[in-house]
C-alpha cells in the first residue's frame, strides 16, 4: 500500500483483508533488536501498525468506490482495520449490524481430472535421439507426465534454501564416500580390517562436516550418529560377505562406472546409458553387480510365474516389472561376460542386506525375455507419435513426493 500513497483511484479492490495480512507486522527489526527499542521506550510494532492504518484509510478515501474482500472461518478473522471501519460506520448510523458483508463462495477443483500433452514430430525425433537410462524408463513407467516434465521440458526441481537434508543428498554423500573408500581395492581383494574402518570413518567425519554440519548446525549430531551407525553396520556386513569361502569377493572390478551401449529392439536402435555402483568378481568365478540403496525404494521384478501372466501395458509393467534397474544392469554386464555366471542385487544400506535379482523364484532366461519385451514396449510407446504424456495418479505416495505435484493441480 505504500506505493499508493500519492495516487487517487476510481475503484479500489483490497484482497485478503485478514489479520496477519493487514496489518502485516514484522516480529523484529533487521537492524535494531526489539529489546533495545523497548528499553528506549520505542514500540516499533505500534509505529508500523499506525503507518499501515494511515495508508489503509488514505487508500480508501482516495477512491470513488472500494471493495474489501476477506476470508472468514475458524482459522481466520477479518482485519482489525476493517473492524474499526465497520464500527465507525455503525456508530454513525446508530445501530449494530448496519453494514453486512456480501458472502461469496466458489467451487474449486483440487486436481484436474486428466492432464496430458500430445507429441509433435519434433518431440518424437528428439526422443528417438535421447540416451535412455533405467531412471528415465522407470520415470515414464511411474508417470508419463513426470517423464514429459523431466526429459522433454527439461524442468529441474527448485533447490530449497532450507536447513533440511534431502534423501537424495544423503544418497549422493554415501555413494561418493564408498567410491572413495573402496577405490584402492579395484583389481584387488577388499580387506575390511581395523585400519580400513578407521580410514572410512575418518573420511566420513571430514566429509560430513563439509556437507552437512554447517547446514544443520546444532542438530547435525543426530544425523551424524544415525549415519555413522549405519556405516558401521555396513562395514560389519561387508566384512562377513568378503570373507565367505565360495561366494566371497575375490576382487572389485569397477566402481561408479558409466557405460553407453546401444540396444536394438524390434528393429529400432536405442541409445542407452547406465552407471553401475560396483561390480565384483567372486571367489567362485561369477560376476556380481551391486546397486547401493540408501532409501526404502528398492524394487526388483516379481517372480517369473507372475511375470508370465502379465499384460503388456504400461500399468501392468508398472505393477510387475516395477523397476528396470537390475534387468538393464544384468543384460549389459552379461554381454561382457557371456561365459560366466552373473547375478545382481540391490544392496540396502539402511539395514544392510542383499536383495538378489536371481533367486529360487526366478528363471533368469524367461525373466529377461519378459523384461526385454517390456522394455521394448515402453521405449516404443515413448517415441510413438499417437501416445500422449498423461498423468498417472494411481499411487498417492508417489504423487506426494513428486517435484511437479503443484503442476498437476
Descriptive account of the structure:
- This protein has 409 residues and is of the alpha/beta class.
- The chain folds into 2 domains: 2-93, Double Stranded RNA Binding Domain (2-Layer Sandwich), CATH 3.30.160; 121-160 and 182-188 and 245-408, Lambda Exonuclease, Chain A, CATH 3.90.320.
- It has helices spanning 34-39, 44-61, 80-93, 121-128, 134-142, 144-152, 167-182, 194-216, 220-243, 304-308, 314-320, 325-336, 364-382, 396-400, and strands at 9-14, 63-68, 116-117, 131-132, 249-259, 262-265, 268-272, 274-282, 287-293, 342-348, 353-356, 389-390.
- A 5-stranded mixed β-sheet has the order 5-8-9-10-11.
- A hairpin with a 4-residue loop joins strand 8 and strand 9 (287-293).
- The longest helix has 24 residues, at 220-243.
- The two termini are 31 Å apart.
Amino acid at each position: 500500500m505504500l506505493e499508493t500513497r500519492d495516487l487517487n483511484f476510481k475503484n479500489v479492490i483490497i484482497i485478503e483483508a485478514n489479520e496477519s495480512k493487514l496489518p502485516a507486522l514484522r516480529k523484529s527489526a533487521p537492524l535494531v533488536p526489539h529489546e533495545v527499542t523497548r528499553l528506549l521506550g520505542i514500540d516499533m510494532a505500534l509505529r508500523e501498525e499506525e503507518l499501515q492504518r494511515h495508508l489503509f484509510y488514505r487508500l480508501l478515501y482516495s477512491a470513488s468506490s472500494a471493495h474489501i474482500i476477506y476470508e472468514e472461518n475458524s482459522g481466520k478473522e477479518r482485519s482489525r482495520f476493517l473492524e474499526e471501519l465497520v464500527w465507525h460506520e455503525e456508530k454513525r448510523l446508530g445501530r449494530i449490524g448496519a453494514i453486512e458483508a456480501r458472502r461469496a463462495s466458489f467451487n474449486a477443483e483440487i486436481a484436474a481430472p486428466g492432464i496430458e500433452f500430445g507429441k509433435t514430430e519434433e518431440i518424437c525425433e528428439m526422443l528417438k535421439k535421447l540416451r535412455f537410462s533405467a531412471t528415465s524408463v522407470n520415470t515414464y513407467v511411474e508417470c508419463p507426465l513426470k517423464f514429459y516434465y523431466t526429459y522433454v521440458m527439461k524442468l529441474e526441481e527448485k533447490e530449497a534454501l532450507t536447513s533440511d537434508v534431502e534423501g537424495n543428498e544423503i544418497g549422493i554423500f554415501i555413494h561418493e564416500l564408498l567410491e572413495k573408500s573402496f577405490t584402492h581395492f579395484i583389481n584387488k581383494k577388499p580387506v575390511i580390517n581395523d585400519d580400513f574402518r578407521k580410514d572410512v570413518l575418518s573420511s566420513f567425519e571430514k566429509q560430513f562436516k563439509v556437507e552437512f554440519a554447517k547446514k544443520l548446525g546444532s542438530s547435525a549430531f543426530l544425523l551424524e550418529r544415525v549415519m555413522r551407525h549405519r556405516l558401521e553396520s555396513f562395514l560389519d556386513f561387508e566384512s562377513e560377505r568378503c570373507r565367505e569361502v565360495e561366494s566371497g569377493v575375490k576382487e572389485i572390478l569397477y566402481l561408479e562406472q558409466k557405460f553407453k551401449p546401444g540396444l536394438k529392439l524390434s528393429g529400432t536402435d536405442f541409445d542407452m546409458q547406465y552407471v553401475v555402483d560396483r561390480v565384483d568378481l567372486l571367489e567362485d568365478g561369477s560376476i556380481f553387480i551391486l546397486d547401493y540403496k540408501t532409501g526404502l525404494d528398492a524394487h526388483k521384478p516379481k517372480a517369473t510365474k507372475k511375470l508370465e501372466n502379465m499384460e503388456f501395458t504400461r500399468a501392468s509393467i508398472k505393477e510387475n516389472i516395477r523397476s528396470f534397474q537390475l534387468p538393464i544392469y544384468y543384460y549389459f554386464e552379461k554381454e561382457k561376460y557371456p561365459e560366466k555366471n552373473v547375478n545382481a542385487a540391490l544392496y540396502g544400506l539402511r539395514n544392510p542386506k542383499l536383495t538378489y535379482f536371481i533367486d529360487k523364484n526366478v528363471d533368469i532366461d524367461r525373466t529377461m525375455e519378459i523384461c526385454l519385451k517390456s522394455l521394448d514396449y515402453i521405449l516404443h510407446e515413448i517415441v510413438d507419435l499417437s501416445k500422449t504424456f498423461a498423468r498417472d495418479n494411481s499411487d498417492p505416495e508417489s504423487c506426494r513426493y513428486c517435484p511437479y505435484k503443484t503442476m498437476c493441480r
